[in-house]
Design brief:
349 residues, Rossmann fold, 2 domains, six-stranded mixed β-sheet, four-stranded parallel β-sheet, globular
Length: 349
């Protein structure tokens, strides 16, 4: 057993797990399960990285309010970090994101300011910028903040290299979200494991990277308008309605070997299959990335090693289509099981 000075010491060092039933024969498919972070997602790393970098630089001083725009997971991670360190936190969030996310943030002590669904991600970012300027709060700027990528270079990338020490890693498959994981890990792999091919997945309904259309930006690198290739999709946080600066940096570096487009139904299907066949409980974004990894595996020769990032837990999606077919009441089959013995029975309908 390990002892930690605070909950923040438990961030990172997430496990890499072999896929046994869903992987094609002859291909070694592994997943890195970021749900093992204390608040259940890869964004716990980001939250710690941007807050501690701001403390070191002097931008964040005791008692100053922190603010960020989030689809949920970054806000939940920030709520944990700010609760432990004693900073007030305000998050802006578009109203279409799952209700359980805003409840979790409020439970952790954060204030959640909702923005209309029609404005999508750009609107919630604009609101966060306005609030930061008006009140003098510290804006973490997760989509442009280099500290986001830096913590993944220091932690996620180093964990991957250690887990595959002495053997090859042929493919690393990920979504992009803020771009922090993608930028932080890809630059380390490009330098230290240059034979590893980097595969990036994005929604089939929102092929922003594949479109080749440049993102309109403000002087600070933030997006000034929604990307024209965006359409709504069910993968919350996996691809916003703009290309983040950190993601654009990776595109510009030329290290992405392949872009795969994943339909929403495939994301939902494979999240369910991971739960039912492998016992791995993750969300729609993880299902989407896993769908992309399976496509890589289907075309790979025997002996190929593939690592797929699974960003978060399935508990973030209880009110989303992921659980649409999961009933709270007993099914007819379950009722028949109950009635097969005499005790504690409900009446047959």
């Amino acid at each position: 057993m390990s002892r930690f000075d605070s909950i923040l010491g438990t961030i990172g060092n997430t496990p890499v797990v072999r896929i046994n039933k869903l992987a094609p024969a002859g291909v070694n498919l592994f997943v890195k399960i970021e749900a093992f972070n204390p608040l259940g997602s890869v964004k716990d790393r980001l939250a710690l990285g941007v807050i501690e970098a701001a403390e070191r630089s002097g931008e964040l001083t005791p008692g100053r309010t922190v603010i960020e725009a989030t689809s949920g997971n970054t806000g939940i991670g920030l709520a944990m970090v700010c609760a432990q360190k004693g900073y007030p936190l305000v998050v802006t969030m578009a109203e279409q994101f799952s209700v359980e996310r805003r409840k979790l943030m409020r439970f952790l002590g954060a204030k959640v300011v909702l923005t209309p669904a029609a404005g999508r991600a750009v609107a919630m970012v604009t609101k966060a910028v306005e609030l930061a300027r008006t009140h003098g709060w510290f804006l973490t700027r997760q989509f442009e903040n280099e500290a986001n990528a830096d913590i993944h270079s220091r932690t996620t990338a180093r964990e991957i290299i250690a887990d595959f020490a002495g053997e090859k890693l042929d493919y690393w498959v990920t979504g992009y979200g803020t771009g922090g994981t993608l930028k932080g890990v890809s630059r380390v792999l490009a330098k230290e494991m240059p034979d590893t091919r980097i595969v990036v997945c994005e929604p089939a309904d929102a092929p922003l990277l594949a479109s080749g259309i440049a993102q309109e930006r403000n002087a600070d690198g933030s997006a000034s308008a929604p990307h024209p290739a965006f359409k709504p999709h069910p993968m919350q946080g996996w691809t916003p309605d703009f290309i983040p600066k950190l993601t654009a940096d990776v595109v510009g570096a030329g290290v992405i070997d392949r872009i795969i487009h994943v339909p929403g139904p495939d994301a939902i299907r494979w999240a369910g299959e991971l739960a039912r066949k492998e016992g791995i409980f993750v969300g729609i974004t993880a299902g989407a990335t896993f769908a992309g990894a399976l496509r890589v595996c289907a075309e790979a020769p025997a002996g190929t090693n593939v690592l797929c990032m699974l960003p978060d837990t399935g508990e973030r999606y209880l009110t989303t289509p992921l659980f649409a077919d999961v009933q709270a009441d007993m099914s007819p089959e379950e009722l028949e099981i109950s009635l097969s013995t005499p005790s504690a029975q409900f009446p047959r309908p």
